[in-house]
Amino acid sequence: MTINFCSNCGGPMEQRIPEADDHIRSVCKHCGFIHYLNPKTVVGTIPEYKDKILLCRRNIEPQKGKWTLPAGYLENGESVQDGAARETLEETLANVKIIEPYRMFNIVHVNQIYVMFRATLPSPEFGPTKESMDVRLFHEKDIPWENIAFKVIKETLRNYYCDKKKGIYPFKVGDIHRHS
Amino acid sequence: MTINFCSNCGGPMEQRIPEADDHIRSVCKHCGFIHYLNPKTVVGTIPEYKDKILLCRRNIEPQKGKWTLPAGYLENGESVQDGAARETLEETLANVKIIEPYRMFNIVHVNQIYVMFRATLPSPEFGPTKESMDVRLFHEKDIPWENIAFKVIKETLRNYYCDKKKGIYPFKVGDIHRHS
Ligand SMILES: [Zn+2]
Ligand SMILES: [Zn+2]
């Protein structure tokens, strides 16, 4: 994202280190307004129903047609738990109950932080939405590993099934690299 | 933060719900660019040295003169752990080693997410900086509870000493409300 004009006064921008700062920022030449760019948080869930989990098949780019866990950008005015539940509802029509935080991932090369929660589906009610062409419950043996949309989701699922065998789900922070 | 002008083309903005969205956004009337506003992540540490922890006394507003744990905004291009260690170095001159994530807090009314890590100080090397007029190691009995800068830091410290008595530090997500 390039900042060409000041969102405060519409003036031209320059790249420099502001006083009492140590990072290069976009600063307005006219009014001095500093435009900070910070990582965005993506929140999502692993919705559990009995011994299955809910996946959704993307109806939008990128990765249209691939399967994923419900997740999306945290919005102003909501908690991480509320955001994760909202994204799950928007993408699967399922009203989940958040259990606990499960994984955080740094995706430094795209300036994203993922926070994934374990969640329960009180009843098997869900369905396709504008964002998801298909929504289904999967047993571990049926997970479409070759058709998972994003590396961070594949890693979350791998971690989840590994922990499921042990019956404990400790919270951890991981990293997703561009090539790995 | 109000967006008066488009950062892409400098054109005038309007507040409306974009197509295929369900939130009101700042949208450019001229080029259609959508300006998203998302919560910012603050990362910090509880730096441990033997049975003490490191606090810094703020040299800048807000809450100048009050004590706090080292913490600040996560920057693009760094992991949450690296950001927490960087902020600790900037505010206390201490080079900590991150142990593990300890607390996440939603501060919904200011659109912030805090992520606080337990960390160790390999040696008692630290000192004042531009941001901290004083930096000191504290025993629990000496913590200046009446002079802690922010509610989120007081809550982190309370949680920490409660867990310390039990000798386990489970990761949890909490909420900080405006009045409580
Ligand atoms: Zn300006
Ligand atoms: Zn524009």
Automatic annotation (TrEMBL), chains A, B:
Nudix hydrolase domain sequence ranges: 38-161
Domain of life: Bacteria
InterPro entries: NUDIX_hydrolase-like_dom_sf, NUDIX_hydrolase_dom, Nudix_N
Pfam families: NUDIX (PF00293), Zn_ribbon_Nudix (PF14803)
UniProt-recorded name of the protein: Nudix hydrolase domain-containing protein
Organism: Desulfamplus magnetovallimortis
Species classification: Bacteria, Pseudomonadati, Thermodesulfobacteriota, Desulfobacteria, Desulfobacterales
